[in-house]
Amino acid sequence: MAREQYRYFASVYDRMMDNIPYKEWKQYVLKLFYKYGVPPCADITELGCGTGVMTRLLAEDGFHMTGIDISEEMLKVAQTKTSDRVLYKLADMRKFSLDHKQDAIISICDSMNYLITVEDFTKTCICAYNNLTDSGVFIFDLKTEYFFENELDGKTFSENMGDFSYVWKNKYDPVSRIHKYHLLFDCVVDDRREKKEELHKQRCYRASEIKEAAIKAGFTHASVYDAFTFGKPKKSSERIYVVLQKSSL
């Protein structure tokens, strides 16, 4: 997870990702909250909040939200979406500490895939556990190997959006289980045309790695769902949701 990611990309991220159905995703998250006993007006933190779209949507539903991201550029965009129920914090999801325990911690839109080592994944789970109330839940989604291999690997996406254009190249390595996004931008910055480049990496996690990280963190209850359903993941699942819950003693 590098701070060099989401620099220029941050300024155009919402425009490039305008196909993400955030409101529908929010409805699924709300169903998970209900299922796992997250109360109305709960204190919730989003890890890897990016430009704060989901953070703001949940704040509009009455939750007290904290958004954490490692990218200062992404948070600058997020802070333009003001709400008195949102606090944004520049922090590393692998080693964050909050002022008080949270009822839920979430990470949406495959931010957890950006943790490219099992050690970093485990550190994030430990931080989440330590910052949750008793019976609090850690909810996150992950892209699957099926998605990396069948929807992204070897594919190139490009678009001219007027004031900038981009070329997005994808490569998945099944041995390292690392997917690389190579982004090339042709853009106008301060009235000058420039070319910018970013390399993003995500890791595909095995079920055994997720389980081991959750156990090391201290979680004793876990559920995994095919995204946006309450069914079990399938071989063709493109995204999964993981719910880890602390035991109430």
Helix-strand makeup class? alpha/beta
Give the CATH superfamily of the largest domain: Vaccinia Virus protein VP39
What's the mean pLDDT score? 93
CATH classification class of the largest domain: Alpha Beta
Sequence of secondary-structure elements: HHEHEHEEHEHEEEEHEE
Per CATH, the architecture of the largest domain is 3-Layer(aba) Sandwich
Beta-strand portion reads: 25-35%
Percent helix range: 25-40%
Number of domains: 2
Q: How is the biggest beta sheet arranged?
A: 7 strands, mixed
The shape, in one word, is globular
CATH topology of the largest domain: Rossmann fold
What can you tell me about this protein's structure?
The chain has seven helices and eleven strands. The chain has 249 residues and is of the alpha/beta class. The protein folds into two domains: 176 residues, 3-Layer(aba) Sandwich (Rossmann fold); 58 residues, S-adenosyl-L-methionine-dependent methyltransferases (N-terminal domain of TfIIb), CATH 2.20.25.110. The chain has a seven-stranded mixed beta sheet. Strands 6-7-8-9 form a four-stranded antiparallel beta sheet. α4 links the parallel β2 and β3. The mean pLDDT is 93.
Q: What secondary-structure arrangement, pairings included, does this model have?
A:
Blueprint: H1 8-16, H2 22-35, E1 43-47, H3 53-60, E2 64-69, H4 72-78, E3 86-90, E4 102-107, H5 118-130, E5 132-143, H6 145-152, E6 156-160, E7 164-173, E8 178-189, E9 192-203, H7 207-217, E10 221-226, E11 239-245
Parallel strand pairs: 1-2, 1-4, 2-3, 4-5
Antiparallel strand pairs: 5-11, 6-7, 7-8, 8-9, 10-11
Helix pairs in contact: 5-7
